[in-house]
Amino acid sequence: MKTILYEHLERPIYNSDLLDRLDPKKFITRYCLNLSPSNPGPGLKVRPLKTSDYETGFLELLSQLTVVGEIEEEKFLERFSTMELCPNSYYITVIEDTIINKVIGTGTLIVEQKFIHNCAVRGRIEDIVISDEYRGRQLGKLLIATLTLLGEELKCYKVSLECKDSMVPYYTSLGFRNEAGNSNYLQIRFPL
Ligand SMILES: CC(C)(COP(=O)(O)OP(=O)(O)OC[C@H]1O[C@@H](n2cnc3c(N)ncnc32)[C@H](O)[C@@H]1OP(=O)(O)O)[C@@H](O)C(=O)NCCC(=O)NCCS
């Protein structure tokens, strides 16, 4: 009975206190950005993904980035729980338009546990998307700055991302660099 009740409680994928620890001054000095998680703009809120976000357009938003597929709520909650079983790993962050109760932006910081560098941790930024009608308002920049500073706060020794060639200028403007001799990205794809 307890388990069933717990399944229905709204819960965040990580502790939102972490976002409060990010220094708003760093958004100004490093990114020339007057927005921060504590001040994302009128009617907006930056917060961790929650179990209730099945209802707030999170998956529909991701489909503006790539193929998502038909995901039932049960499957969504199952995947959420699997991520929760890897604590301190999945920092899925969303921007919500609180006036219409819709998720309009999302991005993920994944923190990987390593043995190298004296048991260090490293971050990867994934799945960045801002809903088309909210683009051009610096919200993508806010999201990436938030995830990068979260990586710093969590003591990652580096944060990296993969992107299309056309996005290189965008991420370069946000501090990411192609390191000479160390910036190849290779992959093998398997049919799903
Ligand atoms: C990429 C994306 C997240 C940008 O979000 P956004 O909120 O519109 O971007 P911002 O308003 O924060 O843009 C900040 C700056 O970057 C610039 N910019 C935006 N997209 C850019 C691009 N593709 N290349 C270069 N610069 C870009 C903007 O012109 C703006 O410049 P300014 O500060 O001089 O005004 C958004 O367009 C999106 O969701 N695209 C579809 C999904 C996608 O491609 N995700 C990234 C996968 S790697």
Describe how the helices and strands are arranged.
Elements: H1 2-8, H2 17-20, H3 24-31, E1 44-48, H4 58-62, H5 73-84, E2 90-97, E3 102-113, H6 116-119, E4 121-130, H7 139-153, E5 156-161, H8 168-172
Parallel strand pairs: 4-5
Antiparallel strand pairs: 1-2, 2-3, 3-4
The structure holds coenzyme A (COA).
Q: How big is the Rg?
A: 17 Å
Shape summary: globular
State the CATH superfamily name.
Gcn5-related N-acetyltransferase (GNAT)
**Hey, roughly how much beta strand do the residues contain?**
15-25%
The ordered H/E elements are: HHHEHHEEHEHEH
The order of strands across the largest sheet is: 1-2-3-4-5
Count of individual helical segments:
8
User: What fold name stands as the CATH topology?
Assistant: Aminopeptidase
Q: Look at the structure and give the mean pLDDT.
A: 95
The helix-and-strand class reads alpha+beta
Specify the helix fraction band: 25-40%
Low-confidence stretches: 1-5
CATH architecture classification name: 3-Layer(aba) Sandwich
The biggest beta sheet reads: 5 strands, mixed
Oligomer: single chain
| Count of distinct structural domains | 1
**Distance, first to last CA:** 36 Å
